[in-house]
Design goal:
Length: about 170
């Protein structure tokens, strides 16, 4: 016999984001690193954006926004940028604050890009994201593909990321 007071409803939402790389001619002048999943990546140009352009954390922010209906990227993130807050972890935290009774259970990321070499950084990104959202690291998965170079991302012009956020909320 189930206890109605402990009944939970499973929900999920999808978030997506993409950014192109800073043009090669501007890379050195830009003077900021490529940041993915909260991890600084050496040897690759940064992504173009008014924040740190962390496409992975932006996709996460959009997925959490999909769970709550509270939009963070856009006006709220732009306001933070105007105040000098460009770290995408702040956007994730703003989205997480809107979860209320919703409890994240799993995050799955799919990245399309030719560069950087993701095999060397996936575990660091998983740990960083797990810590940020307070999930066990085995509840954060990341896959990456070049997509056989069929898109601009697969050809190395930028990075695209999709995030599926699974969660539970109390049944009414």
């Amino acid at each position: 016999m189930s206890d109605k007071n402990n009944a939970m409803i499973s929900i999920a939402a999808i978030g997506q984001d993409s950014h192109c790389f800073v043009p090669q001619a501007d890379w050195q002048a830009n003077n900021r690193p490529l940041i993915l999943g909260g991890v600084t990546v050496e040897g690759c140009p940064p992504l173009l954006g008014n924040s740190d352009a962390d496409v992975i954390l932006h996709a996460l922010t959009n997925a959490v926004s999909g769970l709550t209906g509270e939009r963070v990227l856009g006006m709220a993130a732009d306001d933070l940028c105007r105040k000098g807050i460009t770290d995408s972890r702040a956007y994730v935290m703003l989205a997480l604050d809107s979860l209320k009774d919703i409890q994240l259970t799993h995050l799955s990321f799919s990245i399309e890009a030719k560069r950087p070499q993701f095999a060397n950084i996936i575990e660091s990104m998983r740990r960083e994201i797990a810590t940020l959202v307070q999930l066990p690291v085995h509840h954060v998965t990341i896959t990456a593909t070049s997509g056989e170079e069929m898109t601009a991302f697969g050809r190395g012009e930028g990075i695209a990321c999709i995030c599926i956020a699974s969660a539970v909320l109390p049944a009414f």
